[in-house]
């Protein structure tokens, strides 16, 4: 199974959602940026960026901003780190995005201009026992009974969305060397998901997006200053053309509507969660059938969006996990797949 098989030549980003027990049910988000500027924030996985992107972020350090705080963390193990904190316009909470670059990749003049401050080790979360307890109770309450079990969640007043249960388990992420048309970035890695999760049965539709956000971006101007094609507009077509940051605002609004009584929260899936759900226990290239059975693609779509849920579902009842549109995931992109237990979502884009 390839990491991406999507519709058309133009990259259009859509999203599926997961609902899972929050392991931070009793933590309190900081109301202002951390004061220790030389310490890697807890729970954050640094993302490697290009020298050009790093220099662009570095140039913003010290500039007066009310919704962002950009700090130079220092150097460690031949790398230089920056923390970009941003404040949500919905919840008022701060989140961290740490980037780094290998010092050897920087031009000598810029590298020599960087402060030689040593970055401290990652700080630990406060009161880990209370967090674990809260997460365990929420998980027990939200846990499904069988793979593919369906449950509805109200994402906006009067608007419900169907989710399917994906149980805990392990799988080989990526594709074997013998798979047709595979790419070098698809080397396999064993991944264990220690907790199950609910994932939306289909991609978020344009009507669902509009119900949560108040408008449909496809009604505006599209790429190259032209209106979006009429064939790509429709209440049951997937929402496309939204950014990762747009998706985070969408999630905040959905979570505000859901409340926190059951200890759960809505999120984008991690790449591991997405592929695990897409495979649904299978190992082939197109779980659930042939490519035409399960996916809309260049060869059968005419180059336009198609209604969600009209192709065959996989073994866990999920549609459009192959083909259709590109989809956002919560965590950052890894050139090499990070096989491990319970890959956690980090606030980085992919």
Structure description:
By secondary structure, this protein is an alpha+beta fold. It has two domains: 212 residues, Alpha-Beta Complex (paralog of FGE (formylglycine-generating enzyme)); 96 residues, no CATH class. A five-stranded antiparallel beta sheet has the order 7-8-11-2-12. A hairpin with a 2-residue loop joins strand 7 and strand 8. The N terminus and C terminus are likely disordered.
Please tell me the total number of domains: 2
- Name of the CATH architecture of the largest domain: Alpha-Beta Complex
Largest sheet: 5 strands, antiparallel
At CATH level 3, the topology of the largest domain is paralog of FGE (formylglycine-generating enzyme)
Order of strands, main sheet, comes to 7-8-11-2-12
Query: What's the overall average pLDDT, rounded?
Result: 78
Tell me the fraction of residues in β-strands, as a range: 15-25%
Q: What sequence of helices (H) and strands (E) makes up the elements? A: EEEHEEEHHEEEEEHHEHHHE
Low-confidence stretches: 1-13, 22-36, 123-133, 343-350
Measured between the Cα atoms of the first and last residue, the distance is: 18 Å
C-alpha Rg (nearest Å): 21 Å
Number of E-type strands:
13
The CATH homologous superfamily of the largest domain is called paralog of FGE (formylglycine-generating enzyme)
Helicity, as a percent range: 10-25%
Q: What is the level 1 CATH name of the largest domain?
A: Alpha Beta
């Amino acid at each position: 199974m390839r990491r991406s098989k999507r519709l058309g030549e133009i990259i259009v980003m859509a999203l599926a959602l997961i609902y899972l027990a929050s392991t931070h049910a009793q933590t309190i988000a900081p109301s202002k940026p951390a004061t220790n500027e030389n310490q890697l924030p807890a729970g954050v996985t640094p993302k490697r960026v290009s020298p050009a992107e790093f220099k662009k972020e570095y140039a913003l350090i010290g500039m007066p901003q009310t919704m962002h705080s950009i700090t130079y963390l220092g150097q460690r193990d031949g790398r230089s780190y920056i923390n970009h904190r941003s404040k949500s316009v919905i919840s008022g909470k701060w989140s961290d995005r740490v980037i780094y670059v290998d010092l050897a990749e920087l031009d000598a003049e810029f590298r020599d201009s960087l402060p030689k401050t040593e970055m401290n080790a990652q700080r630990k979360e406060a009161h880990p026992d209370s967090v674990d307890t809260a997460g365990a109770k929420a998980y027990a309450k939200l846990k499904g009974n069988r793979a593919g079990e369906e449950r509805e969640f109200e994402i906006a007043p009067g608007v419900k969305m169907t989710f399917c249960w994906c149980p805990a388990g392990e799988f080989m992420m990526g594709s074997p060397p013998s798979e047709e048309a595979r790419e070098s970035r698809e080397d396999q890695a064993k991944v264990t998901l220690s907790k199950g999760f609910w994932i939306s049965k289909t991609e978020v539709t344009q009507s669902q997006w509009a119900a949560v956000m108040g408008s449909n971006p496809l009604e505006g101007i599209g790429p190259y200053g032209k209106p979006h094609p009429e064939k790509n507009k429709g209440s049951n077509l997937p929402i496309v053309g939204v950014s990762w940051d747009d998706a985070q605002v969408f999630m905040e609004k959905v979570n505000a509507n859901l409340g926190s009584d059951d200890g759960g929260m809505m999120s984008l899936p991690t790449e591991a969660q997405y592929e695990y759900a897409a495979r649904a226990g299978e190992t082939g290239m197109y779980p659930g059938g042939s490519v035409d059975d399960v996916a809309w693609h260049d060869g059968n779509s005419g180059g336009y969006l198609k209604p969600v849920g009209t192709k065959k579902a996989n073994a866990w009842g999920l549609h459009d996990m192959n083909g259709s549109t590109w989809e956002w995931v919560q965590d950052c992109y890894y050139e090499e797949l990070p096989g491990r237990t319970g890959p956690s979502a980090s606030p980085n884009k992919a």
